[in-house]
Amino acid sequence: MFLSDRSTQAEYSDAPGLSPEHVARNYADLAKINRLFAFAEPFQRSMVNWLGRDKVQSLKILDLGAGDGSLGRALETWAKRKGWNWSVTNLDFNENALRIHGAASNVRASVTALPFADNSFDVVIASQMTHHLDTDDDVTKHFAEAWRVTRDALFFTDLHRNPALLGMVWVSCICAGLSAEMRADGIISIRRGWRVPEWRRLAQASGIPSSNVWLYFGSRIILQARKRNV
Q1: At 224, phi and psi to the nearest 5?
Q2: Cβ distance 222 to 211 under 8 Å?
Q3: In terms of DSSP bridges, do strands 121-127 and 58-64 run parallel, antiparallel, or are they unpaired?
Q4: What angle do CA 142, 196, 135 make, to 5 degrees?
Q5: Which terminus of the chain faces fewer neighbouring Cβ atoms within 10 Å, N or C?
Q6: pTM reported for the whole predicted model
Q7: pLDDT by residue for the chain (230 residues), tens digit each?
Q8: Which residues pair with 64 in a beta bridge?
Q9: Other beta carbons within 10 Å of 32
Q10: Which residue from 28, 67, 6 is spatially nearest to 181, judged by alpha carbons?
């Protein structure tokens, strides 16, 4: 059946050796799609409601696969408008991506081997990042490491692998004027996306107890879990 199995075709923007200018152009294109699909909204609404508004006044957050740090900046700005203090550390393996908006909070490292002590962050997040990992083993390491370094919660989102979203992304990429390379990556990213049972299985294999994996408006899958109620 179409899209029943996850693709392992690499995205063009993940190719090694891309110049800093090429990476910056790709992230400029990605920003257009992120705005169209309100990429920060699950963290601003669903995550806040889940954690409890009385628990999110001050948060130390780790964003895994943060790229150019767009999500972290959006969340910090949004929280500041509400009178909250959110501090986001951006972690990515692509040094050129982190350099686009250089910040002291940027960390270059792999999501499968995080350079932090246990319980270092209030919340660990990831947005449309996990599908970049090729194997189940990498994903379980990624989940387990995120669980290790959070002292309270993790909240991940990624793409739901389905034909309707594939068509929507293709049309959106054309309308947004994305490059041919990024249009192709939009389709590949959906084909590399996930189904709810897959993330449930991988979360269990990662040793995350009582995780909740659910479908968000048909377009994204969310994984959330807490170590304790605070």
Answers
A1: -135, 145
A2: no
A3: parallel
A4: 35
A5: N
A6: 0.96
A7: 568 899 999 999 999 999 999 999 999 999 999 999 999 999 999 999 999 999 999 999 999 999 999 999 999 999 999 999 999 999 999 999 999 998 889 999 999 999 999 999 999 999 999 999 999 999 999 999 999 999 999 999 999 999 999 999 999 999 999 999 999 999 999 999 999 999 999 999 999 998 999 999 999 999 999 997 54
A8: 91, 126
A9: 16
A10: 28
C-beta of residue 145 within 8 angstroms of C-beta of residue 120: no
Q: Residue 44 in contact with residue 65, Cβ under 8 Å?
A: no
16 lies in a domain?
no
DSSP 110: -
CATH number, domain at 179?
Answer: 3.40.50.150
- Domain of 92, in residue numbers: 22-226
Spatial separation of the C-alpha atoms in residues 61 and 71, rounded to whole Å? 11
Query: Is residue 82 domain-resident?
Result: yes
Q: How many domains does the chain have?
A: 1
Count of CB atoms situated within 10 Å of the CB of 13: 24
